[in-house]
Amino acid sequence: MKSFIVTDEMNGWHVVKASAKAFPGLKTADLYKALKHKDIRIDGKKTSSDIAVREGQAVEVWLPDSLFEGEGDKVEKKKDPDYKIVAETDGLLIVNKRQGLAVHSGKGTGEDNLIDIVRNTTGNRNMELVHRIDMNTGGLVMMAKDKKSLEDAIRLFKEDLLIKRYRCLVLGTPTDGETVVCEDDAIMKEVSAYLEKTKSGNVFIHDSQQENDLPITTRYRVLHTYKNAGPDGIDVSEIECELVTGRTHQIRAQFAHLGHPIVGDGNYGRNKDNLFFRKIDGSKVRNQQLFATSLILRKIPADNIHSVLSGRKFTIEPRFEIDMSHKGGY
Hints:
This protein has about 325 residues and is α+β, with helices and mostly antiparallel strands. The protein contains seven helices and 16 strands.
């Protein structure tokens, strides 16, 4: 963000013209985009119109610093590392996977995938995934180093000894559900429904159970709400979700069903809404703003080789593509 004070020469000019004068490196197209997203403020007030400014007014332009120098197109985009190790034991590896990388090979995933990359970088060909997350979801993934470690890690899921939490940005502010107290005393709302998965892989959510539907339950709490930060002035909320059941696309489909789709989700959200948002560098948002951020382990029996992790919690911060820091929250 950079700011300037309107000079006598600029008095009566429209804000885009004045901003272009103050910052010659900025492209007019970027300024109009900033207006569209209400990323220009006059005397602290957001505006989406190219209105006239008066001498002495303070104008703030919330754009990446590189754009002010006319270097936006020249800056080399650094690719995030495929994964970072968060924790490691004799039998397990917990990594933070980047968005856009599939966890295993499959149709439409390309040649690169997390498990093969980890096998190659560690030299352990026996490494196996304990669970999966979507290609366009970033965050924590657990892998086992051998067959016994895999068997005991799968037990953690079957015996309900592992809690998975996610953080995401959604349109609006959800209020549905009944209040519950979670394992770590976190207070959340709990919502339940029924999920239908078709043979083609499409997922639909129903309020009442239909043939072949599976029950789903998700807990959530609102962490921040950013006023008027979305299309047509709608609020945007950051929420934390806890999976009670773990079905295909559960969080994405369920919150879209509740009227609060995840920002950037092309399957369950609206493209028109997603196109409103821009990444920190000004480009289009390519991924759903959803990250697997916490793995919480309950008391693990001594006969499980992963008992060393009993009571442990592993957490990462989500790397949202959208900078919400200047949007104003409550």
